[in-house]
Amino acid sequence: MEVGNIDEALIFYGNFIEFEIESQNKDAALIFFGDQFIDFSLCRNQITDDSRHLGIVVDNKELVRQTLLKMSINFTKTDSLFFHDPWGNYIEIMAYDKTLYTKADDILKKMGLGHLTKTDEALAELRKKNMAY
């Protein structure tokens, strides 16, 4: 993801994502959070993007919503938590229980998230795709 300042991007995203920095220099940073990652690069000079977006799956969407509100973030779609970061990147926050994105039980347990389950609607969609029983 292209940003205008690596240090500021780490601070911004660190406000609502707990991550580990895998690598960082003045032009780039790679962060991991669970089994997701973002590779930041310094060079954002595009206009605000409303079509391409990055989806981040979280276990507590409401907590992220409240955190972003405290950060004075304006949502473009509140039901799905779409917003622009300070560099115009379009971000979507998705709840794990409602998305088709899934993790193996042993991965969830190792991440301390063994309590998470899917909604009936998400399970039905996964079953349609032969991805759940």
Task: Describe this entry's structure for a reader.
By secondary structure, the chain is an alpha/beta fold. It has a single domain (2-128), classed as 2,3-Dihydroxybiphenyl 1,2-Dioxygenase, domain 1. It has 4 helices and 8 strands. A 4-stranded mixed β-sheet has the order 1-4-3-2, with helices on one face. The chain has a 4-stranded mixed β-sheet with strand order 5-8-7-6. It starts with a strand and ends in a 5-residue tail after the last helix. The mean pLDDT is 87.
The CATH architecture comes to Roll
Order of helices and strands: EHEEEEHEEEHH
Q: Number of helical runs?
A: 4
Number of domains: 1
Question: Main attributes?
Answer:
alpha/beta; 2,3-Dihydroxybiphenyl 1,2-Dioxygenase, domain 1; four-stranded mixed beta sheet; 29% strand
Short description:
The protein is an alpha/beta fold.
What is the topology?
Blueprint: E1 2-3, H1 6-14, E2 20-25, E3 28-33, E4 36-42, E5 54-58, H2 61-70, E6 75-77, E7 82-84, E8 90-95, H3 105-110, H4 120-128
Parallel strand pairs: 1-4, 5-8
Antiparallel strand pairs: 2-3, 3-4, 6-7, 7-8
